[in-house]
Amino acid sequence: MNKFKGRVAILGSGNIGVSLAKGLVKSGYAEAGQISLTRRSAAGLTDLAEQGFAVSTDNAAVVANADIVVLAVLPQQLNNLLAQIGAVVDVQKHVFISVASGVSCADIRSKIGEDVQVVRAMPNTAIAIGQSMTCVATDNASQQNVEEVTRMFETVGSVVKINEDLMTSATALCACGIAFFLRAIRAASQGGVEIGFHADEALKMAVQTAKGAADLLLLMQSHPEQEIDKVTSPKGCTIAGLNEMEHNGFSSSLIKGIKLSAIKAGALYTKE
């Protein structure tokens, strides 16, 4: 991988920010010393400093020295953060990446300058193991900058470029979606206990089966129904179980949950 030559500032070093920083270093995208991480409290930065990252509690100072700035705070904290850094934003130099749910590129530019290039990115918590599904979108960033942001997030998983009006939908399907699939795995393991397995055995079996199902689709590049057809024989046990789940709203409840999460995701940020 071609090394990034500039400096990256990650403002708000929670799970997403720290995982991205570690992914950039692990993949060879950047050296730890090129990446600055900030938090409101210095207490949580000691370990990161020991790993070679530049750490600070001064967002403005860090932004002033950066080329790419990652806004990795909660939507409710974003306006305060943007107020802190507004005076040091350099339109010619800075590219901003926002991972805040429900906040548009235009919302961010309205706070720090209409000509600033902003890219939105929506990773999920599997970023911690380099398996994120990250969606990226922009309404004004150059193709070169979008490609750079894509390259950054490809160090921690897969990336899809989408239209910005689909970002809250991406939040529901990919970010919230981690929880939905985890709950399905948990339910499967509970079913396993009911039919005779110990809890730890049932969970291991459910997890590996779910992983196998996902990998089948990724590696075979097939459709779920194709793989389902291979498991469902006439009058068999699989189709009986599937149909019982469907009669009880399995697919319908998942679809409805995703739709509600998308509505909620769009209402997390207050523009004022």
From TrEMBL:
GO molecular function: pyrroline-5-carboxylate reductase activity
Pyrroline-5-carboxylate reductase catalytic N-terminal domain sequence ranges: 7-102
Xref: InterPro entries: 6-PGluconate_DH-like_C_sf, NAD(P)-bd_dom_sf, P5C_Rdtase_cat_N, P5CR_dimer, Pyrroline-COOH_reductase
Gene3D superfamilies named in the record: NAD(P)-binding Rossmann-like Domain, ProC C-terminal domain-like
Main localization, broad class: cytoplasm
Domain Pyrroline-5-carboxylate reductase dimerisation, chain residue ranges per copy: 164-264
GO cellular component: cytoplasm
Entry's EC annotation: 1.5.1.2
Pathway involvement of the protein, from the record: Amino-acid biosynthesis; L-proline biosynthesis; L-proline from L-glutamate 5-semialdehyde: step 1/1
Key words of the record: Amino-acid biosynthesis, Cytoplasm, NADP, Oxidoreductase, Proline biosynthesis
Location(s) in or outside the cell: Cytoplasm
Chain residues that bind NADP(+): A72, V73, L74, P75
Entry function: Catalyzes the reduction of 1-pyrroline-5-carboxylate (PCA) to L-proline.
Family: Belongs to the pyrroline-5-carboxylate reductase family.
Name assigned to this protein: Pyrroline-5-carboxylate reductase
Organism: Pedobacter heparinus (strain ATCC 13125 / DSM 2366 / CIP 104194 / JCM 7457 / NBRC 12017 / NCIMB 9290 / NRRL B-14731 / HIM 762-3)
